[in-house]
Each structure stands twice: as C-alpha cells, then as structure tokens.
Amino acid sequence: MINLEIPEKQTELVDQAHQLAVHMLRPISRTYDRAEHDYPHELDTLAALIDAISETGVTGGAGASGVRRDASPADAASDAGTVRNGAHLASVLSVAEMCWGDIALLLSMPRQGLGNSAIASLANEEQRERYRGTWAAMAITEPGVGSDSAGITTTAVKDGDHYVINGEKIYVTSGDRADSVVVWATLDRELGRAAIKSFLVRKDNPGLTVERLEHKLGIRASDTAAITFTDCRVPAEDLLGSAEIDTTAGFAGAMVTFDNTRPLVAAMAVGCARASLDLTRDLLEQAGVVIDYDRPAQVQSAAAAKFIQLEADWEGTQLLMMQAAWMADNRRPNSLEASMAKAKAGRVGSDVTLSCVQLCGTLGYSEVELLEKWARDSKILDIFEGTQQIQQLIVARRILGLTSAELK
Amino acid sequence: MYPGATSAGVFDLTPTEDEQMLMDAVTELAAELVRPAAAAADAACAAPVEVLEAAREIGLPGLGVSDALGGIMAERSAMAGTLVTEALAHGDMGIAVAALAPGAVATALALWGTEAQQQTYLPAFIGDSGKVPVAALTLSEPSVLFDPFTPATTAVRDGDGFVLDGVKSAVVRGAEAELFVIGAMLDGREALFLVESGTDGLEVEADPSMGLRAAGLARLHLTGVRIAADALLGDTEGVAYTECVRLSRLAWCALAVGTGQAVLDYVKDYVNERQAFGEPISHRQSVAFMVADIAIELQAMRLLTWKAASRAARGADFAREVGLARQLCAERGMRIGLDGVQLLGGHGFVKEHPVERWYRDLRAVGLMEGAVLV
C-alpha cells in the first residue's frame, strides 16, 4: 500500500538523532567552522552515545555507517512477501537529522567514516570482525584523477604475503583523524577497472604519510587530507573482497560502495537544506511573512512564493532519497534511484541554502546566523561521491540504454 | 523537524492489488484508444464518443463513489483516483480531462451531497445502462491573479434559495454539460452550488484555449441565476470547498505526472533514433542530460503527488503536501514540456509529433482549479 511517511518504528531513532543535532552539534557548529583543523573533542562523547544507541536499536547507526546489501537466508525467508523498512531507510533518515545539525561534524564522527561504508560493503566476515571499532577514511581521488576513478595510478604490487602500495591520494575525508584508510589501488594498470582493489591501511603504517590538510570553502570542521603511500607494505589479508582480477565483473565490486553512499550524501543535502528552510521560515514569519499552502503562490508575497518553491523541491528530494533507501532495504537494485536522489539533492541543496541567504539579506550573509555556513557546506554535496554530472551520466545511460562507450 | 506526520504503516511505493488492476485496465485504454485519438480530438476540440464510452465501461465516472452509494470501489480512494488519472493522462491530458470531468461531479456529490442530492443525481453517473450525463465542476474564473479562495462569482440569499452572478472559466465540455457544480462566495465564504443546465440566466460560450482542447473548454456566464435552497452542495463554512480545491489540484498533479511520463517515453526513443554528425543525438551529453533531468524531476513530481494522495486517502491533512506537489508539478512539468519540444528540434514544433500538444497541455497544470477531482 502506497505510503510515503516516515514509518512509526523509525520515528524514535529520528527523534534521537534530531535531539543529538540540537544539543550536541548546533552548539559547536560555528566554533569548529572557525577553528578549521581543530579536533572537535566533544564528538568522542557523542560517538560513544551513538554506539550505545546503535546497539540497542534496530537501526544501522546514526552516522555514515555502511549497510550491507546481502542478508542471511533466514532473514530473507522470514520477510518474504512483506515490505521492509530497515537499516538503509534508518540510515538516511538519521544522517539527514544529524546534518540538520552540522554536515562536517557528522563527517567527523569517530568510527563512522566513508571507509567504514566500504568495509561494510566489501569486507568478508573475518575482516569485518578484525576491523571492528576501526575508524576508516576513504582514499580514492588523486591529483590527476577525480571522476574518472577507473584511471587511478596508485599501484599495489604483490610481494610475498604483502602488497606494496605506491601513490598519492587527496581529498581524504577524516584522513588525519581516522585510524585507518581504505585505499583504492590497481594491481595492473593494463587491466583497467577490474584490477582496482581496496586495501585497508593502518595509519601507523610507516609507508603512509599525511602530507597536509586542506583549507576549504565549507565543511571546515571535517579534516580533508592529502596522503602519500611510499613503498607502503600491507598484509595480503587486508585486501577487501576478492584478490582475483575478474574482467567480466568489471567495476561492479568497487562501485557497489557508491550505491550505498550516494543516498547518504543525498541525506546530507536533505538535512542541511531543511536546516536553512526551518531558520528562514522562522525569520520570515518574525518579519510578518505568511506562507499559505492553499492560496496560489503568485498572489502571496514574493518571499512566500519563493519559500514554497524551495520547499517543494526539498520535499521531492527527501522522497527520492527515501525511495533509494527503501529499494535497498527490499533488496532491489537501486543504482539508478541512488543517482537520481544524489543528482537532485546536490542541486537542491545548493539552491535552497543559497536562496535562503538571499531571502534573509545581510542577516543571512553574516556569521551571526548559520545560513551562510550552510550555503558553503552544501556545495561539496554536489561534488563528492560522484559529481552532479557523473550522476546525470549514470541516469542518462540507464534511461537511454546506452553504454559508457556510446555516451561518454 | 519534518512537518509531515509519521505513520504506523511502512514506507512503501507498491500499489494495492485493486489499484494495480485498475491501473492496468486504464493503461491499456490509454495506449490503445486514447493516444491514437489524441491528435484528432485536439483539432476537433472534442473527445471522441467511443473513447468516453470505453472510459464509462471500466467505471471511471464512479471511481470516486464508494460501493455503498453504487460505485465500483469498496471505499473511495484518492490514491486509486490519482493512479488512474496518471495512467489515463499518459494517453492524452485533454481526453483524460474530458473523460474524468463527470466523475469529478459524481465524487463531489458522494463526498459532500445530502442523501436527497445523492439520490437525485448519483444513479445516472454510476448506472450500467445508458450514457453518463455530462457534468462539470467549475471553480476557475477568467481574471488575472485568480485566487479560488476569493471568487468574484457571488451567491446571494433570496427567499428560500440563492441567486448566482458571475463568470466561470475552463468549464469542461461546457456546451454539452447538463449539470454544473459552481464555486461562489456566499456571505463572505466560498461555497459550492449544483446548477442544472436548463436554469434561466445561464449562458455557455466556447473558450478554446492553448491546450486541453479535447476537453471542450467553455465559459459559463451566470446572470441572476435563481436556484433553490437544496442546490447548496456541502457546508457554508468553506470546508467542502477547500477540500474540493485540494483534491482537484491533486488530480492536476496526477495529470502532469502522466503527461510528463508520456514526454519521457517519447523523447528517449526519438533521441536514440535521430542521427546527427554520424551518431544518435543521445550520444551527446547536452541531449542525454536533458533526458536524465526529465526522468529525475518527473520521479520527484510523482513521489510528491503520491505522498499527498496517500495522505488524502488515509484522511490525514494534506494541505501542505498538495500545495508543494502543485508547485513542483507546475514548474517542473512545464520544464518537461519545454524540453520535450526542444529535444525534437523543428520536429517538435510541428503537429506530426505529439510533443507540441503536451507542451500546450502542461501549461495548464499550475493555473487550473476544479474540473477534475480524485
């Protein structure tokens, strides 16, 4: 039966995440935006709290945790024919709430790194047990390789029971603070995508050096590192997934991580944009602007009409995000829907946060309010984990039935 | 923080079995009868009788009427109505509006009519024999910045009854209509009135417009139209009227989604077949990304429309959701119509292809009030 509300069994989680955002993230949001690169030590307490919530709840945690696509046969049998609202939906809803608080602090949450998503998606049973409790960053981008992630130049060469990794990675979120990094490297540059593998590298590995931290437009509370790997020896058992170079499987193994993380990035935009809308609405109403959903927008004030337009786009984005998560919960392939959600969320995140600054004038532009910060933070969401243009490519190829050779 | 209410149910995008059966039947009707008839109906400013008859046979006029009142569904459902409207519009928006207009009046009678009003009028809409009366729900007026909550048409108490004066516009199949539901101001509040076409003081004037031509749009002039006390449909506090505006906007959203899907399905085949510079134009990002954006925005429109519909079907407040759905469907729907023509280039501008008609029809979504209802 068609129903697009937040399910009741997940409202407690959503409320908890919202309370954390209100009481623990918002109060320190401006502080760490100004003090870029300072470690937000308050997050240690919060991470412990979230660990406790995750253990008691039905949820996948309140942070950017990974969620596995497969499930045990017993699980599959027990809910045959029923509709599931599970960990994927819980994750996007709680991430949105936390990002209503602060995107950068959510990204800085200990043990909730993007590398943890990769571990959840790719690691075998034994590895997941061994990596329990690690805080894993994700290192894919290189100085010369961005969206074309199949073209990475970092190499991994087998040497006995180790791999030796050499290369340079940039834009590693939590690259300084995390205690491990999931690195993409190629076993054989001649063999293209199939030869790209993920390796978990401990930060104390002497072959790994954090070279610098970036100074950024937004999400300044999140550290973004450049990391070099120089004859970095990694035990063979830290290769995630299969060591086989299966050219028929193509890129799917590595890319499955993105199917999981794209709805989460959409959730970040949903949360940040909602924060802008909530505050803007308060400020507009204090100024006497009335927003009426029944009267035609064009007979209301221009500010009210603009607000309704922004909120409509926001609501559509939230539902695309929920759709992508719902499909994953019900084990339906969702890479099209995940990319649709991220594409829409990326542009709506920018449009909403920038328009809210405009509506609020110098009040919105000033550091007195957080509106200007959200307008800076949101920009990254249309870039990382696949830019707007990459999402459009994915959607277009799927809708039009074209290969990557046909639609370049 | 989320203004939407939560629900005890699960988030789900799967129609019920009954809804799916209805959608399948209507999808077939849309593909086999409606689409092939669309161009001629547009030119003739009238929907073909055999298509309207086929719509009657599958029970569309009675869709909004519960089976206790003789309808086809166990309970009336705005969700089923939305899905059916979307499916029918995939064939053609103008014909869909023509086919659904009598059902809008039947639904209004079922929702807000007194027992006497229902007994007088409803059997004709849902009976198996004979043809369904042509009827029109009319809220719009031909004025700039029209706001359905402040109509210029007035109802003044006169003895036991009322006297109506004003001009209504976008009256579907106005020339043939036997029964009108008319929105007017009574004592400073909006109200609905039942007016039969033979009543003195009514004058119908054809009003062909940019699109929706198959719906036979007309203006209805009301000059001192005297009606009895029992012609009032619903309350005098504006409650029925407000719900009527919202349910009607929901139907227009569904029409936009169905038409938008028609555009997407058409252009994706076209851009894959049309060659330029030695390859299909779909191999160019500037073309392919327009198609991707149509698909993305269309799905956002659909989900928002479904959310409003499912809330309406559950009896939850849906004012905010339908307001947002209307905004998105008007704005993004028009963009889809615009891009649909652009993707076909010169071929999109001529009537050999349906995209110019969809362009004209989609302009209606943001400005129409009334006419259809789910």
Terminal CA distance of chain B? 30 Å
Multimer state: heterodimer
Unreliable segments of 5+ consecutive residues of chain A: 57-78
Shape of chain B: globular
CATH homology superfamily name of the largest domain in chain B: Butyryl-CoA Dehydrogenase, subunit A, domain 3
Strand content of chain A: 5-15%
Structural class of chain A: alpha+beta
> What is the 3D form of chain A?
globular
Task: Provide an overview of this structure.
Chain A is of the alpha+beta class and about 400 residues long. Chain A folds into 3 domains: about 10-125, Butyryl-Coa Dehydrogenase, subunit A, domain 1, CATH 1.10.540; about 135-240, Butyryl-CoA Dehydrogenase, subunit A, domain 2, CATH 2.40.110.10; about 250-400, Up-down Bundle (Butyryl-CoA Dehydrogenase, subunit A, domain 3), CATH 1.20.140.10. Chain A is built from 12 helices and 8 strands. In chain A, the strands form 2 sheets. A 4-stranded mixed sheet of chain A has the order 1-4-5-8, with helices on one face. In chain A, a hairpin with a 2-residue loop joins strand 2 and strand 3. In chain A, helix 1 (about 10-35) packs parallel to helix 4, helix 8 runs parallel beside helix 10 and helix 8 runs antiparallel to helix 11. Chain A starts with 10 loop residues before the first helix and ends in an 8-residue tail after the last helix. Chain B folds into 3 domains: about 15-130, Orthogonal Bundle (Butyryl-Coa Dehydrogenase, subunit A, domain 1), CATH 1.10.540.10; about 140-235, Butyryl-CoA Dehydrogenase, subunit A, domain 2, CATH 2.40.110.10; about 240-360, Butyryl-CoA Dehydrogenase, subunit A, domain 3 (Up-down Bundle). Chain B is an alpha+beta fold. In chain B, strand 9 and strand 10 (about 280) form a beta hairpin. Mean pLDDT of chain B is about 95; it is low at about 1-5. In chain B, the strands form 2 sheets. In chain B, strands 1, 2, 3, 4, 5, 6, 7 and 8 form an 8-stranded mixed sheet that branches. Chain B is about 50% helix and about 15% strand. At the A-B interface, helix 1, helix 4, helix 9, helix 10 and helix 12 of A face helix 6, helix 7 and helix 8 of B.
